[in-house]
Amino acid sequence: MEDNQMKAYSGAIKISRWIGGIMLLSLLTFAPLSVSAQCGIDNHAFKSGEFLSYDLYFNWKFIWVKVGSASMSTVMSRYGGQQAWRTSLITRGNNKLDNVFMMRDTLLSYCSEDLSPLYFRKGAREGKRYYVDELWYTYPKNNCHLKMHRIEANGTVKWKETEYQDCVYDMMSIFLRARNFDASTLKEGENIPMPISDARRMSNSWLKYIGKETFKMEGRDEKYRCLVFSFIEREKGKNHELIRFYITDDQNHIPVRLDMFLSFGSAKAFLKGYKGVRSPMTSLEK
After folding, report:
1. Which of 32, 112, 235, 258 could covalently link to 81 via disulfide, CB atoms 3.0 to 4.6 Å apart?
2. CA gap 48, 54 in Å, rounded
3. What per-residue confidence (pLDDT) applies to 262?
4. DSSP conformational letter for 64
């Protein structure tokens, strides 16, 4: 039993790290920021007031068990004296999951109107561990400068600053950006570089376009025409598929299903409900 708990705990950590990426605690005041246009993208996928909710499942011994929920909201707000998108993601394990480990994650992201990242925060309680990641973005001379802050589970505080010539994103801002890709220009098997950073390091990661598929929601009559992507990370010389996700093949590009691949098994997230979407859900078939 102890070994199974350790495996489940390890899996929970991976799930909490990657649910968001795909898929809010402080408002800091700074001088107005000059954002490089090279990191932006036109938004056609969502509007202020969008709310998405998900059910989370683990596969234990070939049985799918509901173990929690997640919700994501996006509103137009202000950051550093300018209009900005504020997106929050909250994941919560239920009593079944709490019996093995506790998962309570809260993520916050601010992006400019053209979706260039400005600020990111993640506060995560995973079992008995609690840690905080923060990122501040500035764009001097068209570079991407990151100021990183991390509070480790043992209370150690770490600060770091680094600068890149290319754009860098976090778990939340990359989600908003990916929803605005023009899939009509993509070819099956095509890779899209997706450099993502937390307060420790930048990962060598990318999206792979798998193609189109019609997905029937579990236990319900709804069918969604979807675009399928795989999120892949290269670590220690090997490629690892972390998440395969299905987004609606319409203007909204809402994730309706996420398959998460863990060391001890697999987990899934299914769209439970939505409101405040920008465009008609033309991908929905009943």
Report:
1. 32
2. 19
3. 63
4. E
User: Residue 179: helix, strand or coil by DSSP?
Assistant: coil
pLDDT at 74: 97
Total residues belonging to the chain: 286
Neighbours of 244 (CB within 10 A): 18
Region 93-109 average pLDDT = 74
What pTM value is reported for the model? Answer: 0.81
**Dihedral sign, CA of 13, 17, 22, 27?**
positive
Neighbours of 229 (CB within 10 A): 24
Q: Convert 179-216 to b/e letters by CB count within 10 Å (16 or more is b).
A: bebeeeebeeeeeeebbbbbbeeeeebbbbbbeeeebe
Is the pLDDT confidence value at 31 over 80? no
pLDDT in tens, 228-239: 998 888 888 888
On the 0-12 / 13-18 / 19+ scale of CB atoms within 10 A, 141 is: exposed
Of the chain, the end-to-end C-alpha distance in Å amounts to 43
Q: Which helix (H) or strand (E) holds 52?
A: strand 50-60
Residue 120 confidence (pLDDT): 96
Question: In which band, very low, low, confident or very high, does the pLDDT at 17 lie, cut at 50, 70 and 90?
Answer: very low
What number of CA atoms fall less than 13 Å from residue 177's CA on the CB side? 27
**Number of H helices and number of E strands within the chain?**
3, 16
Q: Do the strands 191-193 and 103-112 form a parallel or antiparallel pair, or are they unpaired?
A: unpaired
